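Example 9 (inverse folding). The structure is encoded as follows.
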């Protein structure tokens, strides 16, 4: 009989209890009643989802605008600190002369007209120079000066000659 008990004891296999799935908490709830069991099998780790960057918007990307072409946008003259009008003949070159002395701030000079925005330059340091701007279509043009946090002086003059 002792032998029978020993033999039957050897045939017993250890079967561990089935894995228990533990509840996972969701960010929206704190109550145990609304929890769902984990779908990850016991002993394995869940792989986090692959995060991808959001797609770039295509409708609001800035586009390069060639200067001196018909239909080129212009700067709002009402926002300029100073505005000067000049009549330009077709196929002429406008020479914009500038002298800027400053200790801080910015000065932006713009030349625009029937060709649209044809020249623009922003200055952050003292500078003296001349810009030669060819004009194809004659008409009324304007030189605009816009200053921001500016401390200094600037002087603008212009002339025109045939191209």
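The amino acid assigned to each position is listed next.
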């Amino acid at each position: 009989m002792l032998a029978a008990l020993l033999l039957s004891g050897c045939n017993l296999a250890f079967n561990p209890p089935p894995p228990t799935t533990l509840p996972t908490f969701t960010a929206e709830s704190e109550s145990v009643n609304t929890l769902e069991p984990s779908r990850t099998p016991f002993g394995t780790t869940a792989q986090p989802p692959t995060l991808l960057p959001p797609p770039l918007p295509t409708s609001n990307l800035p586009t390069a605008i060639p200067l001196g072409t018909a239909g080129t946008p212009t700067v709002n003259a009402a926002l300029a600190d100073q505005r000067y009008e000049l009549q330009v003949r077709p196929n002429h070159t406008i020479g914009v002369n500038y002298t800027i002395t400053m200790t801080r701030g910015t000065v932006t000079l713009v030349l625009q007209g029937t060709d649209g925005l044809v020249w623009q330059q922003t200055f952050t340091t003292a500078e003296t120079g001349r810009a030669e701007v060819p004009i194809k279509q004659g008409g009324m043009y304007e030189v605009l000066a816009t200053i921001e946090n500016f401390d200094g002086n600037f002087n603008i003059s212009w002339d025109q000659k045939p191209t």
